[in-house]
Structure formats: structure tokens, C-alpha cells
Amino acid sequence: NAGVTQTPKFRILKIGQSMTLQCTQDMNHNYMYWYRQDPGMGLKLIYYSVGAGITDKGEVPNGYNVSRSTTEDFPLRLELAAPSQTSVYFCASSYSIPDYGYTFGSGTRLTVV
Amino acid sequence: DAKTTQPPSMDCAEGRAANLPCNHSTISGNEYVYWYRQIHSQGPQYIIHGLKNNETNEMASLIITEDRKSSTLILPHATLRDTAVYYCIVRGGMDSSYKLIFGSGTRLLVRP
């Protein structure tokens, strides 16, 4: 099993550019999540999804958009990138019951200059 | 979700047990306690979780007090590779999305 796969691993964006961070999982997990982690800080929840076609905001959703058209994929869209969005982005997935933990991807390191 | 409180940092000697405390005094009856760790800049790794009973797996043990207001993660024989940030998270209950809200965690340093 590949688990949770994130692409790209690194990216540099200029202010005002847009990009999509890709996340795909092959574990048939219903729930998927996007987090960001600023240097030296804990993870902050951006958006999450409890199933295809259903998304909801987390703690820090401003400046981001998501979609969930399939169970496997949960892309994160940045429109008009800003320096404040420089961070490491982690995608995670889980089953829809609390008896299981999350599986995290290896992260995307994004720098906005 | 209930809030958790952890010491910002701890250290222990290699080969000794590492006992990481967590306070969650506002936990409700159907909320689980989860522990994750993050090694350097990797994605967090699930360690263990529990509801009311003590739990043990190949990585660690989780001791939850009878009133469920606090818990302790035990790494029985810490190695240098256990140096990481450890997060205690309360999750579940009425929130059916089971989303994890991370705090600041405890930075554990295992000394040679």
C-alpha cells in the first residue's frame, strides 16, 4: 500500500500565483484532512472532508479551497499565494470511526516569495 | 473537543522509560485520547489511543486515570530514534468528523 501520497514535495511560488497541492490515498478511507505547520509550531487544520462531495472548514481556511470528487483524492487549492502561506502542508486520512488513527502523508514544503 | 495540556519539553536517558503526561480535565465520556509523534519534519505518526482502559501496543503503553482527566504515555525503553514532538489529543464525542486538533505537544529529547 502506498498510503497517503502528496505531490509535489517542494514548491516555490511567487506572490499572487496559484497552485494545487495534490493528495491521494489508497486505503479507502472516508475521512481526509489538510493541515499546515509553520516553523516551530503545531499543526493547524485547514479543511476536512467526511466523504466524496462533502467538505468543511477547519481552524485556518482563509486563502484555501478544497474539493472531494472521489474517495481517493482531496486536492488543496491556493489562489493568490501570499508570504503568510509559506508552510509545510500535510494531508491525512482515516476511517470514519474513532477506533483508528490517522495516516499522514510526507508533506509539501511551500515557500511563497 | 476537550483541551489538553502538556509540558513543553522533557528529556530522558537512552534505555530508560519515558513517561509523558497529559492533562485533559474537560474530557467528556465518549471522547478518546490519542497520542501522535512527529520526528523532525516528517508527517505525524499514530502511536496509540484509548477510551477508559489502559492500552499497550508494540510502540508504547497508555495509562488513563480512573476519572479520565489525565493520561500518561510510556515508552518503556527509549532510544535515540524516539526523540520527537509528542502530541496528546482528545477526539471524538459529538464531533462525528473525528478531526484532530493539535496543540503544542511535548518535545522529548532522548540523551545517549
Taking the sheet with the most strands of chain A, its summary is: 7 strands, mixed
Helix content of chain A: under 10%
Number of helices of chain B: 0
Portion in beta strands of chain A: over 45%
Describe the protein:
The complex is a heterodimer of chains A (113) and B (112). With 113 residues, chain A is mainly β. Chain A has no helices and 11 strands. In chain A, a hairpin with an 8-residue loop joins β9 and β10. The mean pLDDT of chain A is 93. Chain B contains no helices and 9 strands. Chain B has strands at residues 9-13, 18-23, 31-38, 45-50, 55-56, 61-64, 70-75, 84-92, 106-111. In chain B, β6 and β7 form a beta hairpin. Chain B starts with 8 loop residues before the first strand and ends with a strand. The A-B interface holds A 4, 31, 33, 35, 41-45, 48, 50, 56, 58-59, 88, 90, 92, 94, 96-99, 101-107, 109 and B 32, 34, 36, 41-46, 49, 87, 91-92, 96-105.
Helix/strand layout:
The complex is a heterodimer of chains A (113) and B (112).
Chain A: E1 4-7, E2 10-13, E3 19-25, E4 31-37, E5 43-51, E6 54-57, E7 64-66, E8 76-78, E9 87-94, E10 103-104, E11 108-112
Chain B: E1 9-13, E2 18-23, E3 31-38, E4 45-50, E5 55-56, E6 61-64, E7 70-75, E8 84-92, E9 106-111
Parallel strand pairs in B: 1-9
Antiparallel strand pairs in B: 2-7, 3-4, 3-8, 5-6, 6-7, 8-9
